[in-house]
């Protein structure tokens, strides 16, 4: 009897330790809608995805290493929920990282992840860079770099969340011999109470020069309305791509109204490639996990601008100074 009790106690202790040390979560988002796009008179109605949030499937977990130190992993795959297909180029497209973190020292993270210059802007877009209201639809891909949104082979350090509202990130990505992938950047910000403000800067090495990107973003929550905005400029050789965005979100009950205005300006090889974008959206939360949404967006191209709110079988604007507009209605569920 004593031996049995001792064995039971050992097994219970071992099970409890394993439970305390490891934690793995399955999570995801499924977002599907119907979208109508009108590009300079060419119209198309189509199923769409990611109108409110990007559809995804992921696994994340942590292990308690003791002494306040934790190990973690994060694997996240993009899903085209309207067709049931994964990202065309890689499975763990959205994120694949491993990390060591401490509440007092911060976090070291390694792998493919969002870049700090992208989050410095995206955190202040009321449409979350999703759907036809996405402010980045009018961004020009200067230098053909591969680091605008995410970067491969990246090592990042994040400040701990115990600095009185100060947050920040420094990231370095190895190019591994490929032009447009070697990336160095940082972001620093302050968030406390209703205010959030940050700046970010990064450079990506290209064969003949570096693509330089600077971002400033800020928001203030008045309670009845939250106002957000950002200014971004990318520069490559003698060309510049500037963006200004301001938006507002108004929550009431289970509803949320979102509106934004964005302006794009180009110089150098982008001289005259300008556009204004207007977007208006409504979200109704059926629960904490499920929401209905609708968005209308219009891009007024100017000069040599030929931006669109959505493609129509590869169709682009046939000539300059024409309008692209769209409307979408969708359902998002997260788990």
Can you walk me through this structure?
This protein is globular. The chain has a 16-stranded antiparallel β-barrel with strand order 1-3-4-6-7-8-9-10-11-12-13-14-15-16-17-18. It has 2 helices and 18 strands. It has a single domain, classed as Porin (Beta Barrel). Helix content is 8%, strand content 59%. It is mainly β. The longest helix is centred in the first third of the chain and has 20 residues, at 2-21.
Provide keyphrases for this structure:
335 residues; mainly beta; Porin; 16-stranded antiparallel beta barrel; 8% helix; 59% strand; globular
Could you outline the blueprint of secondary structure elements for this entry?
Elements: H1 2-21, E1 22-39, E2 42-49, E3 56-66, E4 69-80, E5 85-86, E6 95-102, E7 106-114, H2 116-122, E8 150-158, E9 166-173, E10 182-192, E11 195-205, E12 210-221, E13 226-236, E14 239-252, E15 255-267, E16 273-285, E17 290-303, E18 323-334
Antiparallel strand pairs: 1-2, 1-3, 1-18, 3-4, 4-5, 4-6, 6-7, 7-8, 8-9, 9-10, 10-11, 11-12, 12-13, 13-14, 14-15, 15-16, 16-17, 17-18
């Amino acid at each position: 009897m004593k031996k049995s009790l001792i064995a039971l106690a050992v097994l219970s202790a071992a099970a409890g330790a394993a439970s305390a040390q490891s934690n793995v979560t399955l999570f995801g988002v499924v977002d599907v809608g119907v979208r109508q796009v009108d590009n300079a008179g060419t119209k198309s109605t189509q199923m769409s995805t990611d109108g409110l949030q990007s559809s995804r499937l992921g696994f994340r977990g942590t292990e308690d290493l003791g002494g306040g130190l934790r190990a973690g992993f994060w694997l996240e795959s993009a899903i085209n929920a309207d067709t049931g297909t994964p990202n065309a180029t890689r499975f763990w497209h959205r994120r694949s990282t491993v990390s060591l973190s401490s509440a007092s020292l911060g976090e070291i993270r390694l792998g493919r992840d969002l870049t700090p210059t992208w989050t410095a802007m995206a955190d202040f877009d009321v449409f979350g860079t999703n759907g036809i209201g996405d402010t980045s639809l009018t961004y020009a891909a200067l230098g053909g770099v591969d680091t605008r949104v995410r970067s491969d082979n990246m090592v990042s350090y994040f400040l701990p969340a115990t600095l009185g509202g100060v947050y920040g990130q420094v990231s370095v990505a190895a190019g591994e011999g490929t032009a447009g992938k070697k990336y160095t950047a940082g972001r620093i910000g302050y968030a406390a109470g209703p205010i959030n403000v940050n700046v970010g800067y990064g450079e990506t090495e290209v064969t003949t020069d570096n693509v330089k990107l600077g971002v400033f973003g800020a928001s203030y929550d008045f309670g009845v309305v939250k106002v957000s905005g950002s200014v971004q400029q990318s520069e490559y050789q003698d060309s510049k791509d500037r963006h200004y965005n301001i938006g507002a979100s108004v929550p009431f009950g289970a509803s949320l109204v979102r509106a934004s205005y964005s302006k794009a300006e180009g110089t150098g090889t982008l001289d005259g490639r300008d556009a204004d974008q207007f977007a208006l959206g409504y979200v109704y939360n059926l629960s904490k996990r499920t929401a209905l949404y609708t968005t209308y967006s219009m891009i007024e191209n100017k000069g040599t601008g030929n931006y669109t709110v959505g493609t129509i079988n590869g169709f682009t604007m046939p000539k300059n100074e024409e309008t692209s507009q769209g409307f979408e209605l969708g359902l998002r569920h997260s788990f």
